[in-house]
Amino acid sequence: MRRRLACFAFVAALVSTVTAMSAGASSTQARPPGSPDLAAMSLAVTDFPTGARVVRQRYVRDPDYLATYERELSLGGTRFGRSSLFFVFTELSVDRSLARMTTLFASINRLMRTKRFRDALATEIARQADVAPGAVVIGRPRTPRIGNGSIAFPIRVRAPGISLQMVTTLTRVDRVLGSILIVSVPGRRLFAADVDRLTRVAAERMRAGLVPASTGPPLVTGTLSPGATVTTTSGTWSGDQVAFTYQWERCTDAATGCSPIPGATMPTYTLTNGDLASTVRVTVSGRNRLGAGTSTSATTAVVAGPAGSPTVTAAPLIQGVVGPGATLTATTGTWTGTPASFAYQWRRCNATTGSCVDIAEAISSTYTLMPADSGSVLRVLVVATNVSGSGGALTAPSATAP
């Protein structure tokens, strides 16, 4: 028991000197604005076989970083590969820019390769842990190919009542630096393959937490009438420094057959007569240096004309035999509101998905089939207008063009 208590005391001292990478770290705090979710990116109990438990976890305020998160795990002899692990301390720090973090990691890498620096660090660890000078030895580092750069260096301690093997790994993934202090069961060996395996798990968690991923869809709000402007949110996302782009889509019927609306790539979209009798939705793409993801809103209700505008009571029809070079005719349908005029837009639609695109200049009541229509079905948007505004109706799809 005395030996184990001595090991705990030594590990606590080691954590305070080796893995507190910034001297200015102070009180706990919540996740700072602008920081990725470091807590979700940290090594977790589930990354180990049974027996691991979290001793402490917290964000710390560190003036050198945008955010820093620490987690300590007690393993009490849990086997990980061929190694028996006693304690794991992990820390994640996110810098304000990729350039700063890249420079910092390169500097640490250079320092750890100098024997003078390793000896000075070992002396400081020994002083903090209250063991004799020379009891702590930091070995030459290895550089496993993990993340955007990684360095692993062994730490050996031999003192009365204490015999430990430890390894500290530093891994950079984009602008996040992860450090892991792995402590073996006293008197047991730490194997490099197990250290690298655990470091890869940590790097995968870091990367997964940085790549954009949707956690909640965008929402569309606004009046669904021509001339009105609808607005979207970006939705909620995990990831880091995510930039968003937008693409509004028009959907035939209630929620199917959606096609991008040309030029509608802003967070707001002003509805037009072309959206009548259809629904709209928006797809938001989130992107950063590590990857991209998309999230699509629910479709809106059907876009309709303002109060008093014509309302269809019998849908328009496409008349004629669908065949090569045939001319088809769209009827107006039947309307309330006494329409003063009608406009037409023929659309070429995918026979399977139902998505449609406007056929350029096909805006009269008749349309002559073209070779480009082969394999597609046709629909017509009929827009009826009176003094109050415009209402619209879509024909049912035609037969598939040969």
Describe the protein's architecture and organization.
Helix 1 crosses helix 4. The chain has helices spanning 2-19, 38-41, 98-112, 115-129, 192-210; strands at residues 28-29, 53-60, 67-80, 83-94, 136-138, 150-159, 162-173, 176-184, 213-216, 220-221, 229-232, 236-238, 243-252, 256-260, 268-270, 279-288, 291-296, 311-314, 318-319, 327-330, 334-336, 341-350, 356-358, 366-368, 376-386, 389-394. It starts with a helix and ends in an 8-residue tail after the last strand. The protein has 3 domains: 2-210, Protein Transport Mog1p, Chain A, CATH 3.40.1000; 213-296, Immunoglobulin-like (Sandwich), CATH 2.60.40; 311-394, Immunoglobulin-like, CATH 2.60.40.2700. With 402 residues, it is an alpha+beta fold. A hairpin with a 2-residue loop joins strand 7 (162-173) and strand 8 (176-184). The chain is built from 5 helices and 26 strands. Strands 1-2-3-4-8-7-6-5 form an 8-stranded antiparallel sheet, sandwiched between helices. The protein is elongated, with a radius of gyration of 32 Å. Helix content is 18%, strand content 41%.
